[in-house]
């Protein structure tokens, strides 16, 4: 086939890759400069600037009558903005919404939408005119203060920028998405901005800290509360930051229950969707304690009423609403704008200085315009004065001239006038010859001389120029004196929900099916050793209590699952219930994956770097990781331990690092040598200082080895061997940390048989050994289920598989040797003990009397 692209062809060959790059770059710059981003000087995108200019040309000012929106849109798209009418009308609508703009620039008449997300009426039904603030953006535009450029078809001109007497970019903010970049600038208080600019004029090197004495932070049109200044400072300093906003609420009392009332919403929050969102969360039981939600908003403002159930705590419900709904949102600040036809991210000081520079340019151009106009008028008045001084001669000259042209020539030649002066004299009416008119001309001439002198001084003096800017800003501040709407809290932590909740001791239970609850520990009365206990929870037929522990309401719970993931939950966020309540599904509190099972729950008060988290698995593996690695938990959790396929987590313990813990190779070698010596001689010794780990197996074996033998490793590691099993069907069932050999360890079997044994009776071994006997097991005792460190200031709580819980005085349990079974701690009959834990002693005198009577 003959190549059609021969050298004689009129078709030019181009590289398609370069062509696409060039075309896309042109398109990108068109979107960035001509549509999506505001100018740093007047804070307007092209469409907003064109709408205001078109309205100014139509004469639709703040004092005029409203004009149909369709007429305004028609002028904008016909003369200046070659895009769809819906794009222009949508922009016009937003400029009129008081919930979108801090200071609206359009005064709308008709339906311009609502905070519930309702659309505005069609443009043929609505009317609009400019607000007083919009006129401040356009003021002096007719005095050659800005450059004009041809419109899209070259038939007329439009302003490249507006004079803008107010810092509109920061005042009303802006948002937009261009190609590869976006802007999101929050609105601010006009009073604060003007105060900061006035200060900046007098203190050219003012720091951000100084300016923030005036500009406290964003001021959103819908109000709300900003928590924390860190994000504000970061945004003002770098141009990027995150500002957390919460709805403003208050609590009302109704008979014997609380009512949460929402008074203000975070910026750009849809009220109707928020109410729907709350209703859905209540329906799905993800938020409990709410009985009714209704909207009582009217023309006076927002009022969303959330009625609570009698037993609900308003602080906790409110905290859950902030966490789960748009009652709390984050405004991501990106202060990106166009300057010198280029997009750039600005700091707060940059934008304030740019506005000042813009105003100086505008005032200089306006002053030059006024000066030229004054000089031109003065020139004419000087000619008229000459005419009045020589009126008889001039009348005779004009009378004797054959036509105007000849008269003009004679005037110019005789009195040394300019053409303009001569024309003004010829156009002068006879009425100007009166004495009064003569006096007016002389007075106007004197005023012009003073005016010209004043304007010339402004152009020569930077101080006078800045004083003029200050005068104009003060005038605007007095005209638009509107107080701040959005409240700012200095520190987010200052209003932590924990401050509103008493720090009480709780018993937390979790069932096999994943139902969790908390019950005040005082609800469980202390009983004598061998007691039958009280029902701790009512479970479903196929469910049973799998784990329980005691913790304070302010503690953090770390949930470790069979997949090795770790999740967070504050104790106070667990629903409080009675002893027999079923509880709430834990999947509604933390984001567990499908079929993911909780294997260990660890309470902690902090995430100090001096602490470690020790994991023990069923296969006898131990792993130790610094607790600080778990302090920043995502909603999907973090990897806590890497488990083998046939392994699962048994327990996890927080351990305080020894001050004298030895981790270097030489000293660890010395530790190993001492351990070997002790093993060979079968001696008991306290020579090795520091904490020890103690792990027990189902078949009654145990091992004690130094904590220092388990180094801290990363979160996703597997760990090392803690104990080797003698029997194939054996597995690790529990572990504790021993501070010293004087401590006592309580071990208990499935049939409630238990004993207290001094830690020193268990021989110190090397990690990975087969261990020694911990408890003598028989058919009467069944398997060993767990161990705890005895603390005589605490009580023991034991939980059975049927859901019964017994509270026993630790001192009532007898001490026994290592190779013994012990005594009946819990009378389980046909039941079995599944878990044990320590809890604070009761100090009630009444309960002590009951114990004696029993």
UniProtKB/TrEMBL annotation:
Gene3D superfamilies: 3.30.1360.40, DNA gyrase/topoisomerase IV, subunit A, C-terminal, Topoisomerase II, domain 5, Topoisomerase, domain 3. CDD domains: TOP4c (cd00187). The keyword Flavoprotein does not apply. NCBIfam families: gyrA, PRK05560.1, PRK05561.1. HAMAP family: GyrA. Belongs to the type II topoisomerase GyrA/ParC subunit family. This is DNA gyrase subunit A.
